[in-house]
UniProtKB/TrEMBL annotation:
Belongs to the short-chain dehydrogenases/reductases (SDR) family. This is Short-chain alcohol dehydrogenase like protein. GO terms for molecular function: oxidoreductase activity. InterPro entries: NAD(P)-bd_dom_sf, Sc_DH/Rdtase_CS, SDR_fam. PROSITE patterns: ADH_SHORT. Keywords: Oxidoreductase. Gene3D superfamilies: NAD(P)-binding Rossmann-like Domain. SUPFAM superfamilies: NAD(P)-binding Rossmann-fold domains. It comes from the Bacteria. It holds the Pfam family adh_short.
Length: 258
């Protein structure tokens, strides 16, 4: 699928994997809407790649609709990347056996709301806009890539909410792809492993921590970089025969319990 002259939306696009995807989509000729809550970084990136920044909280349907409408004004919306998400770590049961020490239920709801429901909200609205596009030779009107995590399969101790949210993204990949086939929209999911993003911080201690994490990767024994994920995003969008797949990009790692 050719995205030259089309528009694209990348949620969580101001940094990390999202920013790398936005740059690579722009390099393919797409005008990218960088949808994020980090205004300073998002505006700088949008200026760099000739795109547009919009403040988007993926739990706010009206903000998502505004981003989709803005994208369609820039060109036919043919590519969407759902990279927005948060993490949370807490054991299901506390050490003292008290109800109040059990996993924070509001935190669980928040992770699901952002990572899973937010992703689906973007999918349903963006795909609706894509359904209005003129089809290409294959009948294709657009492509969507969701970002899950290897935690969907190898969730660690304390990752109940995060793994549940990412497992939900994996679980909806096939049924949603089947739904969207009727309007010529493809949907795939990437499950990243340990990726070197700003979440790990900066400095000597951070580098040592990342190096230690990298020892758990099968090969190569390092953290992945955002561009390695972004290249898979671009492949899933532009390769018209990729549909309904969940692809791990993880160096072969299988996460231990902790």
């Amino acid at each position: 699928m050719d995205i030259n002259g089309a528009s694209a939306i990348v949620t969580g696009g101001a940094s990390g994997i999202g920013a790398a995807a936005a740059r690579q989509l722009a390099a393919k000729g797409a005008t990218v809407v960088v949808a994020d809550l980090q205004a300073e970084k998002g505006e700088a990136l949008a200026k760099e790649i000739g795109g547009v920044f919009l403040t988007v909280d993926v739990t706010d349907t009206d903000q998502i609709k505004a981003a989709v409408n803005a994208a369609t004004e820039l060109g036919p919306l043919r590519a969407v990347v759902n990279s927005a998400g948060i993490g949370w770590a807490q054991r299901t049961v506390g050490r003292d056996g008290e109800f109040d020490s059990a996993h924070d239920l509001d935190a669980f709801r928040k992770v699901i709301a952002i990572n899973l429901i937010g992703t689906f909200d973007v999918v349903r609205l963006a795909a609706t806009a894509m359904s209005r596009n003129e089809p290409d030779a294959d009948g294709g009107r657009g492509a969507i890539v969701n970002l899950a995590s290897v935690a969907a399969f190898d969730g660690q101790i304390g990752q109940a909410s995060y793994s549940a949210s990412k497992g939900g993204i994996v679980g909806m990949t096939l049924p949603v792809a089947r739904d969207l086939a009727a309007v010529g929209v493809r949907l795939n999911t990437i499950a990243p492993g340990l990726i070197d993003t700003p979440i790990y911080g900066e400095g000597e201690a951070s580098e040592a921590f990342k190096a230690n994490l990298g020892k758990n990767v099968l090969f190569p024994k390092r953290l992945g970089v955002a561009d390695e994920l972004a290249s898979m995003v671009v492949e899933l969008i532009t390769n018209s025969y990729m549909n309904a797949e969940v692809i791990r990009v993880d160096g072969g790692i299988r996460m231990p319990p902790k």
